[in-house]
Amino acid sequence: MPDRTPPDRPVVSIRFSAAEIASRVEEMATDLAGKLEPDTLVVSVLKGSFVFAADLIRALSRAGADWSMDFLTLSSYGSGTESGTLIFTKELRLDVRHRHVLVVDDILDTGKTLNAVLERLRRLQPASLKTCVLLDKPERRSGSLQADYVGFSIPNQFVVGYGLDYDERYRNLPYIGVLKNPPPAE
Ligand code: 5GP
Ligand code: MG
After folding, report:
1. Which residue in 80, 102, 148, 157 is a FRET match for 60, CA 20 to 30 A apart?
2. Which atom of ligand 1 is found nearest the CA of 113?
3. Which residues form the catalytic set?
């Protein structure tokens, strides 16, 4: 099959292999399954968490957890590696009131995104609110926010793959990698 990838697309070096991610997701699901309330509402924050959330819910089922799922989309304006203004572009469809909610996101970086999501959800009066992120970049945090469940902690590097994009590419990669020659942030 011809490779139609543009020649100037940055190269990615593998940081977490598909096997490492799969085994960590399985571990997290086992831990979560022992702690989640029955019929927990899993809220996946799109777009970045869609691959992680898809793997996590199936691992949760294997581990015996009971859940239902919804999605919300927070869009950050700007296409580079820096986040801009946050806007909710897709709201939840299910009722959150009195439900036990687990928010699933890809990366906890400055905390701006997760804080906005938590603020929005708290207003809907859930019975409880927990957070689960695949990646944590504690160096970049602007407040004291911590996730209840973390897959991997990483230094301040821009990563792609496994749902994470750079300018809407790379979400398909089965591993998480670092851009070797990232173009300058806009
Ligand atoms: P925060 O609002 O915590 O600064 O950033 C969280 C969001 O920014 C993540 O949900 C993710 O969408 C994006 N983000 C932060 N760091 C990275 C990164 O290294 N790679 C990618 N692709 N997105 C990131
Ligand atoms: Mg995100």
Report:
1. 157
2. 2
3. 109
Cis peptide bond prior to 47, omega within 30° of 0: yes
**Tens-place pLDDT, residues 3-61:** 777 767 778 899 999 999 999 999 999 999 999 999 999 999 999 999 999 999 999 99
Q: Which atom of ligand 1 is found nearest the CA of 157? A: 19
Burial class (CB in 10 A: 0-12, 13-18, 19+), 135: buried
Residue of the nearest CA to atom 24 in ligand 1? 107
Residue whose CA is closest, atom 20 of ligand 1?
159
The predicted-structure confidence for 146-168, as pLDDT tens digits, reads as follows 999 999 999 999 999 999 999 99
pTM of full prediction above 0.85: yes
Cβ neighbours of residue 34 closer than 8 Å, sequence gap 6 or more? 63
